[in-house]
User: Fold these one by one.
Assistant:
Number 1:
Amino acid sequence: MRKKVTVVGGGFVGSTTAQRIVDAGLADVVMTDILESVAGKALDLYEATPITFSDAVVQGICTASGDYQATANSDIVVVTAGFPRKPGMSRDDLLRANYEVVKGVVEGVVKYSPNAILIMVTNPMDAIAQAAFKVSGFPKNRVIGMAGVLDSARMSTFVAMELNVSVENVHSFVLGSHGDDMVPLPRYSTVAGIPLPDLLSKERIAAIVDRTRKGGAEIVNLLKTGSAYYAPSAAVLEMVEAILKDKKKILPCAVYLQGEYGINNLFAGVPVKLGARGAEEIIQINLTPEENAALQKSAANVRELVTVLGV
């Protein structure tokens, strides 16, 4: 029996995520949205499968009534639903509106898929992931936030552009919250195994770090309406594949920390081993005092949002 993935939200991020999962033949996909047009998007995607040679079954379900029965027995639920960020709008501005959206979604999906793994994409992701964790009642290994994979990919792109090398050679590492206080780690970022500080000046690295932190806003400003979706959906695909194939792959993800890195009872982006049970292990690496201070600052900002939500 094929695996089943529900993608909540039929906007650009959700529909592109569904497409990537179906094209890869990883799982059957149910795409949900409060708009009836989701059925058309799903059918269009399904009709592409003979061309892409994917046997995945695709459904589009309108959940305006709050009925998530069609998502029953999902192995993974990817939550992208929420309001998009607009130019000049911070992720924090989205907090309360998207909390209400996600609360209803999580209550709906966990009713029918009590053993699923939740991958949270909705912004502000770290605080929303914590809200989903509390609302779902799931164990901490089954609620994971997508951010570090995306932010690391952005950093890798900028490094490859700077050095004019293949992106396959570049492995970047970004921890912390998904926002302006994220913590790119040049010491742990490499090009063909060579540490980034051995290849670039402090000034060039600082410029790349700054652009990485502002990567989402840069795209929002260029698009004028909406936000990024190609790279975010690719990041979700990597996480979904690691879980469904039990790859034990170490990726930077937002997970609930209970003392790791000196952070308690809070979601933060750290290296995580992803496998069939979700976040199977938190990998602790040595940080310099400066890196640790940046991570603690990032966590403190997430805690402010979590406090506002009361979760």
Number 2:
Amino acid sequence: MSSPIQEIKSDFLLEKEIRLFIKRDDLLNPHISGNKFRKLKYNLECARKEGHDTLLTFGGAYSNHLYAVAAAGVLHGFKTIGIIRGEKYHSLNPTLSFASSKGMELHYVSREKYRGKNSELFRKKLNEQFGRFYLLPEGGSNVEAVRGCTEIIQELDVDFDIFAVCCGTGGTMAGILAGLDANKYVVGFPVLKNGDFLKKDISHLIRSYNEKVYLNWHLETGYHFGGYARYSIELINFINEFKQQFQIPLDPIYTGKMMYGIFDLLKKGSFKRGEKILAIHTGGLQGIKGFNERFGDLIL
């Protein structure tokens, strides 16, 4: 399944002599949208081949990944278990409410214990509690996820100079880099503060996938706005104005920050005249409802 590409046209871009396009992966599926659709594609195939009937994964209370895994479980006939970071919610937020409605078993662990989720002891306890399951990492980023995200590049029939993508766990960017295989250039926009840590994770994912090292990329670490669920009124205004002008919704956690960053870099002259930029819309729009519920109806 391929997603459409839409050109963003404005007087500002004409003045800069830059062509900006956005690949609408948010339209791939109403509940398993964006990079989650691509990350889960081959993981689900692998789970099926290995004879699993249960998917277990991790995430925060507003996780797009948990939302997508719950939906994918119903669609593909898997039982799903979500290990949630933090204390149990007396009233479920929109993300967890949806996951629960799709049959996902929600189990809460303290933030302290959650930090050890990748340890052998933690995994052993999960097996003792839940039996046999196919493990999906937090955010869904693993070798199979990278494989799925390479298909973003395989779908293109137009040549671009720069690729832009927002980064949580780095799997989508790793897939784009592997798909390009050292051609063109990729700019990542981390949504967390620790960009250096993410750089190592992306490099590790690529090496695990194809044993290669790429140098045609960097991370723009100045557009996280403080991290997950952090924002400024300037960011909110940008997201709302972008939707009104181009009829493309952005979320305040991922794609809104990326597009804000792209336009800010354009203002600073960071791109060459004549370049064509392709930004990847990684979905995450389901999170708007929970964001507005938490902070007030900020996103239109």
Number 3:
Amino acid sequence: MKMKRQLWLILGIVFLNILFINISTPLAVEPPPQLIPLEELPPETPEITALREKIEAYIDEYSSRMIEISDYLYYNPEPGYYEYESSKYVAAELEKYGFEVQFGVEGLDEGYNSVIEKLHNARNLPTAFTAKYKGKSEYPVIAFTTEMDALRGDPPFHGCAHNQQPPVALGAAIAMTKIMDEYNLPGSIWVIHLPAEEIPPPDPTAMFKAGYFDEVDFILQTHGGVNSGKIKRPLAGTGGATLISANLYEFKGKTAHASGDPWNGRDAGDALRAMWMMVDMIREHSKPEFRFHGAIIETAKAPNVINPYVLFDHWVRATPGLNQEELNKKVEQVNIIAQAAAMGTFCEVEINHYADYVNGVSTAWANALGWYYTKMYSDEGMTLDELGDLASGWDVGQWASWSIPGLGSERGSITIAMADVPPTAGHSQEKADLTTTPLGHRSLALMAKRQAAVALRLITQPELLDKINEELKQWQEYGLAKGYITEDMLRHRGR
């Protein structure tokens, strides 16, 4: 009897342990499929095909103007945050076609706003704009985003082919509005200029946090550029956990003559050196997936005075294997180090958190729709159905793609592929020059047709947008469970 009681006791303990584990351990959240067979897409009906062919005709009619816009931006390049003439030029073209244009972004986070004001005099992003055109009804809002900043240089130049983005967006958007008016279709078409893509901090994330995209239901972005080589079908999903937190540290001391009376000064440079030394010390006590990057933005101009001011830009990067919570804790450590360094050198420090970089997410339903038209508008034999890279989100992998679905053109999701394109290095003068050739000019209409075709399907077949949004919710659950994102990174828009 005693043996039986002991056996039952042991079995009871085992059962309770199993029950406790099942209750206390959350169930693993599986990601949705990364690929949707094209056969599962709702078919393009004859009526939609007829509308798409009309859109193609409108884009062909506008193609000479698209070439003019691309070449104008190529010959008049402006770097990020200084796209004043470029943005006015593109906005004026949209106004000719009935778009209502509004410049600037209100409600930006103060830390971010103060940084871009200090570095670029760009508070509230004065070159950003949204151009709106309303159809039969407001919903759905399909937005074509565009960038027009040139790479920094002397002089600046369009080595990333951003001169092609505005004409592609305009060609697609203008053609769509004509069809919507002619056939009384629902929805709104927006064109949104995202400034300074080539210069941190990431403006789309800051704009998203300010609610700038809250009314948008789908984003279409093409990076521009005549791409060489065949392209493979992109996979949906998120890139893992390559996360960055960017902070600006403003050390303030007191100047004095470095020889005559240095004892009357407090050296902000000493504070920075102390901070950097202590950051170097915590590398040993940080997981190997962490990276620490720093750059001195402003400092003393002369060696014979005590340095009263240093502006230091510092990033903490969490590579795959780490999550957002771990990154936040590490940034908190760095902030404490900065405060300690200031105290130890009798200086002051002001800390401004101005940017977060996270991997974006793409959906298999949106990718399937985009791939269908990528194959249609690419040159024969230039698309491969074998699987390619992960497409990481419409805005080159940032916060907004977790709440607003879309299609981008980075990381395996290039819009179209053309034959006989010579290879050129990214961010090179050769890449820029290629946009002014017959190949570059021909690519504009092809990219615009692909973008407009996707927009047309979303407006005429709303069940597609429903499927995309349902899948995005599954990716959100997966991202939250894995720690790739946190709840405060999402905006629930109530659509």
